[in-house]
Amino acid sequence: MRHHTSIARTALKLTLSLGLAALGGCAAPTSGVDDAETTATSAAALNAGLGVWSWGTVDGTPLDIGSSATQTCFLSGVAGDLSSGSPTHGAFAGVRIAGTNYVVQAYGGADLNNVPMGKAVNAHVSCTSITTNRVRTGDRHLGSSTPIASVTPQRRCFLESVTGIQQGWVDDVDNARVWNDGTTWFLSGEGDFLNFSKASAVCIDFPIGSTTDTGTVGQATTTIIGSAPGFGTVCGLTGIFGRFHISSWTDGAMINWPKSPTDFWHLTVSPGKTETSPGKSASYACVH
Fold first, then answer.
1. Is the distance from CB of 246 to CB of 80 less than 8 angstroms?
2. What are the percentages of helix, strand and coil residues in the chain, rounded to 5?
């Protein structure tokens, strides 16, 4: 595990290799039940190269987290102020590909002269070594639905990033999400009345035998997500809803990874703090 802090930014990484958790060097979870071969293969694929990152800044400094050829990364948490960026330099939380590598970036945007607004934003990112049939949307303006990929039994989609501008992410109706109609996966949402706000998403095909738990968590709640403990699971956000307008490292919707092979993934959603509730909520998917 590598941990770095400064006044402007924080970074935390937990990396897992097959059969070994780097955090504390503890063994990955094993089962006393003789599971089906497909399930064992799925767990092995999920364990191999699993990584989770936390990165927050006020100035937009990106964090390089390695090659995009050997992993797929997606958003697993967003906190802070997405409502202060300009139309050309919006607030950002998430992960993207720069060149051949993934970078995590999180900050409150900049003015029209590209001077940072000084607002705190924090992003959590989950990565898996699975890259099968990966489809990425790139940035898409919220306000309409963007088709991503066909629905297949093993395909799962997650948010990759969200952006916002002044007066964005200040209403209960603001949202970014991935969803499907049984035939096609879509990225859609609403971030501000002029739809300058954007989001991106990614879909991959998980191994045969994997299972998925999904749900939505409301404001002022911390809850276990996913039905399996330990490091054979990977979780990400499939939607965020409501107000994200407080300069903070923690005020938002944040998935936190397990700290041991017997611990579970958790999702914490902060309470709404202005005007009327419900304030915030978030949807997730956990695959194991």
1. yes
2. 5, 50, 45
